[in-house]
Amino acid sequence: MSAKAVNDFMEVTGTSRTTANKYLKKHAYNLNFAVEEYLGKQYNTNLYKLFEKYQETPDKIGIDGTLCYLEDLGIEPEDVRSLVLSHFLESESMGAFSKENFLQKWTEKNISTISQMKTYLNELTKNMATPSEFDELYGFTFNFLLETPTQRSLSPDLLIDYWKLLFDLVPLDEDVLHRIDQWYDFILKQEKPSNKDAYLMFWEFVKEVVKPDPGSLSGYDEMASWPVVIDEFIEYLQENNLLESTES
């Protein structure tokens, strides 16, 4: 039992066997108490107290704590900054933050107060307009929204809500946004959930086909390996005379 506790302590904290034994012996090999004391000494006291304010269990902030945390930050749950925060803290599911990530990520930024977190999140959200930053956030969002490990797709309504949040972060022309609105109408009429591949490829479609020519989508190649739903979207636009002619 003690050997397992030592190994678990080393894995959680990244420390040596000597350090693990020191803290575990002090706490009669109670892993939670030993880890809590060690982490409390490694991280800023104010930051550690913030985690304790919101924690649901010794190693996690749950949904109630998250709502309280967001309220203190002045952020509504549906605010895009809530999504940016979840990405920054590497949340694996909605409304949950691990103790390790909360303490480590804020410590890396030398941030330990709510006021500092607000300022950093505002700047981080502005930076999401950078293509590489946005692509990373976009990719993160699909898995973040899944409710179970076996879930493979998301409903059109949920995806549209988050597409709207995400696309507010990047500069897109009105005619591009209009074409994206037509995509929303299309997938709502289909009433089919979307898998991760379709979700990821839709943003590639926007970048490669919609943005260069939103009127006629002349960059679309039916022989390219787009997901079926995107091919069907093009057919929908053609059948409803929603594409501009490419003839000069």
UniProtKB/TrEMBL annotation:
One of its GO terms (biological process) is protein neddylation. Residues 42-238 form the DCUN1 domain. It comes from the Eukaryota. One of its GO terms (cellular component) is ubiquitin ligase complex. InterPro entries: DCN-prot, DCN1-like_PONY, PONY_dom, UBA-like_sf. One of its GO terms (molecular function) is ubiquitin conjugating enzyme binding. Keywords: Ubl conjugation pathway. Neddylation of cullins play an essential role in the regulation of SCF-type complexes activity. This is Defective in cullin neddylation protein.
